[in-house]
Amino acid sequence: MQEAHTYFGSEPRFTHCNVHNVKEEMNETLSRYRAAFFKRAYLVLENAADAEDAVQDALLSAYKHIDQFRGEAQLSTWLTAIVSNSARMQLRRRPRHIHVSLDEPVGEEQEHSRQNNWRTAGRILRTSAEALSFVSD
Question: Within 10 A of 90 (CB to CB), how many other CB atoms are there?
Answer without folding.
Answer: 19
